[in-house]
Design a protein that fits this description.
Length: about 425
């Protein structure tokens, strides 16, 4: 099931899957309308000469013109898409390219023009006149004309969509929305039942456990983990699985993926295909995804902010937009219970998972931006504002301490890098207002 989800995610983010389905639909539509024309009595078509008055030569000419123009426009659409991807990759970050490729509007527009081209080809081959015997699929030809007229609006929509999608605010907003959906889906997600403190302490004190390493069979980033399968496997082994790599981590072939230990009650030998079962529960890929990795969503927005703060771009406004969205996402996380790495089944520890902590999320969001905001008072002030917004959403003393530590680091960086006393006083005043 985990592999099927990974396959669907890859198909969903490809530029060819939806257009292929649309081309198949266009072929079926062409054959269906031609079949309808074969079975209909065409005498009534004479009453509508403006719609159905074209002869075989006219129908061929119109469909030929439509087909040639559609394939030309499809080439233009592909060129615009590739140039947009190149611009986004160079100006923002290549990590958001997957978001553009999975944009349903882009996929549908590409498929629409190619589908009309294929539709016209299918209908063209059925038109006959003169010695061949006269047959004009009038309804199918009319549908081709209607699709051509609709394509004008689709082209205008695509140009507007591309122009809107490369704006910095929209790029950051789309990445933030995807991350927000991942947070809603992942937290508080549990792996079995949360282990009681007594069960976890008992496992820590167990001395006779012998851990056996299970190596990874591939190289890549951990994109997702089938947690239910791991929990079931641990129960079948009457043991405990300790994950050595969490979602978002890079794993090399042969590196330890999971370690397995068995309780004293276990008597059956370990299965010969244990490594295959464990590896099947992990999906490895060439890049991180947000399906089970909310930290990667934060990483995308941070990368956009870092590129905006670079000397070559020098766009602090975009960096401020990124900080605002990072603050909103962490505020969403602040009042949620992050799953404990110790997971149990019937009060028996089965899984020791690797879970990101709230401190790690905060560090991912703000550490590098703070380090790269050298001498920029506006960035420092906005970081303090974002941290204060997050603090309002949580009453947990440990999380509040993490946020206060970040605020102190921002103030320290401001004192060290700001050139004028006026700017340093502004940041200090902001710190005093938000963190009394």
């Amino acid at each position: 099931m985990n592999q099927l989800r990974a396959l669907w995610s890859n198909l969903n983010s490809s530029l060819w899957f939806v257009p292929t389905l649309m081309v198949a639909g266009a072929i079926l539509l062409a054959f269906a309308l031609v079949l309808v024309d074969v079975r209909l009595n065409h005498d009534w078509l004479a009453d509508f000469p403006l719609l159905f008055g074209a002869g075989s030569a006219g129908a061929r000419g119109m469909l030929t013109a439509i087909a040639s123009s559609m394939v030309t426009v499809a080439g233009l659409i592909f060129s615009l898409t590739l140039s947009t991807l190149a611009q986004v990759s160079s100006q923002y970050t290549p990590r958001v390219l997957r978001n553009f490729m999975r944009d349903r509007a882009n996929q549908v527009v590409l498929g629409f023009f190619v589908s009309i081209f294929v539709y016209c080809l299918i209908v063209l081959r059925t038109i006959r006149g003169g010695d061949e015997g006269r047959f004009i699929p009038s309804i199918a030809v009319l549908m081709g004309l209607l699709l051509a007229l609709v394509s004008i609006g689709v082209l205008i929509f695509f140009i507007h969509h591309i122009a809107s999608s490369i704006q910095a605010s929209n790029i950051v907003r789309h990445a933030a929305e995807e991350t927000e959906a991942a947070i809603e889906r992942l937290f508080p997600e549990q792996l079995g039942q949360q282990a009681s403190e007594a069960a976890a302490q008992a496992l820590r004190q167990t001395k006779e456990l012998s851990w056996q390493a299970v190596p990874a069979q591939a190289t890549g980033y951990v994109q997702s983990v089938d947690e239910e399968s791991l929990l079931a496997l641990a129960g079948q082994l009457a043991g405990v699985l300790r994950m050595e790599h969490g979602v978002g981590s890079f794993v090399a072939r042969g590196a330890v993926l999971v370690e397995v230990a068995r309780y004293a009650v276990a008597t059956a030998p370990l299965p010969n295909d244990l490594a295959n079962q464990v590896n099947d529960a992990f999906t490895l890929g060439s890049q991180r995804t947000t399906e089970q990795d909310a930290g990667f969503g934060l990483r995308q927005i941070v990368d956009i902010a870092l590129k905006a703060l670079s000397p070559g771009i020098n766009d602090p406004t975009t960096a401020i937009i990124c900080i605002d969205h990072l603050g909103a996402l962490l505020a969403q996380l602040a009042d949620r219970r992050l799953p404990d790495p110790w997971r149990a089944d019937h009060d028996q520890v089965r899984i020791i998972a690797i879970r990101p902590s709230f401190q790690q999320f905060v560090a991912t969001a703000f550490d590098q931006i703070r380090e790269c905001a050298d001498g920029n008072a506006a960035i420092y002030q906005r970081l303090l504002t974002a941290l204060a917004t997050i603090r309002q959403r949580t009453q947990d003393p440990e999380r509040r301490q993490v946020l206060r530590k970040q605020a102190e680091l921002v103030a320290e960086a401001a004192r060290r890098t700001l050139a004028t006393a006026y700017e340093r006083e502004q940041v200090q005043q902001r710190l005093t207002e938000l963190w009394p």
